[in-house]
Amino acid sequence: MRNNIIPYNPKLKEYARQLRNNSTLAEVLLWKNIKNEALGVQFHRQVPMLDYIVDFYCHELMLAIEIDGDSHDHRYFEDLNRQNKLENLGVRFIRFTDGDVKNNMFSVSMSLEEKVKSLKTPLKSPQGDNPFDLRQTLIEIHNRIKPFIHKTPVLTSQLLNEKAGCNLFFKCENFQKMGAFKMRGAANAILSLSEEEKQRGVVTHSSGNFAQAVSLAAQKLGVKAYIVMPENAPQVKKNAVKTYEGEIIECESTPQAREATANKIKEEKRASFFHPSNQDEVIYGNSTAAIELLEEQPNLDIILAPIGGGGLIAGTALATHYFSKKCKVIGAEPKAVDDAYRSLISGKIETNTTFATIADGLRTHLGDRNFPIIQKHVEKIICVEEDEIINAMQLIWERMKIIVEPSSAVAFAAVLKNKEEFATKNVGIIVSGGNVDVKNLPF
């Protein structure tokens, strides 16, 4: 994130001061309060970031605090646009009004303290100070979620082995409850809540598999689930959520609308928010698919997983790092949405401007929790073309007689594209899911 901070600019500083004339007192009051509170993290004032100056910023948590003074009224949407740019890079925001800070400092202090606590984890990095700490944590998580998931099969095909020139082992999460690996992360996230938090319910925004996973996991555990879905989400997916007793709240089909609606429900219901891919509990739950694969096939040389939001491959990478001595992890991504590939090259989270891929589950971008894991533990990312995805999907359907969605075929497509790299090796492939519209197949 620090690579995205621009050098200090006096003119920009002066411009920001003019905009914030009416909130200067509020900023001073809050700054004194932050200095007096033992929050365990360090905030900085007036930090320039991209074309924006953040009132307060914590590098450790990537958390920004904004004071919206009276002079911001006519610039509110401009501020939000800038905020959205930074959020795409993983920055989190909490906003207070000028009046909140001046008139109700106790409430502001409590809100900030809760936000800091929610973002801090016992592990200072995704890998932890002691690697055995996280290894044991992943074992405990696996044992905890076992009653709520299937131990999915690992399938092979001699014909596909011959076609790829290596030994393939498909970890078939298309046979998972609700049809995708997402059940693992959702179950662990809910099981991580306190009883009081479970009583208040959970909320997420998703138009696909995670919406179904959270609904089903919540149903099994007796927890209320609020699911924010774009109004143009396929009706079949909405019906699936309703089947699992999730309460659907529709919104406009934009990332901003989804987040705003979810945040509103979180505040109104005091529900716990779950991110589909950029949350530790979700990532750790996802790791259990690769743990099971390595238990059954301990001699794997490589594991491939598709990359969308990064939650699956991050979990796969952690499992491989802690439970195998020689296995490497390689990601697979559609060329049309190659943000993860570019992120590994640039060293910062990149985004896409178009989403024209048949692999609809891989159209999201990475987050600040999974990206460091990917940077450290993923060997490389292979990009594949649309026709290569369709060909791989058709081969799996025809030769293995199983239903997989386009996103699941991306990893196999990467093997077929780079046969020399995988020749004669033992290769594991995480088949992410099988929720596909069989009336609208690409072949």
TrEMBL record:
Its cofactor is pyridoxal 5'-phosphate. Residues 146-433 form the Tryptophan synthase beta chain-like PALP domain. The keyword Secreted does not apply. GO terms for biological process: D-serine biosynthetic process. One of its GO terms (molecular function) is threonine racemase activity. Residues 11-110 form the DUF559 domain. InterPro entries: DUF559, Endonuclease_DUF559_bact, Restrct_endonuc-II-like, TrpB-like_PALP, TrpB-like_PALP_sf. Transmembrane segments: none annotated. SUPFAM superfamilies: Restriction endonuclease-like, Tryptophan synthase beta subunit-like PLP-dependent enzymes. CDD domains: Endonuclease_DUF559, Thr-dehyd. The keyword Cytoplasm does not apply. Pfam families: DUF559, PALP. Keywords: Lyase, Pyridoxal phosphate. Belongs to the serine/threonine dehydratase family. This is Threonine dehydratase. It comes from Winogradskyella thalassocola.
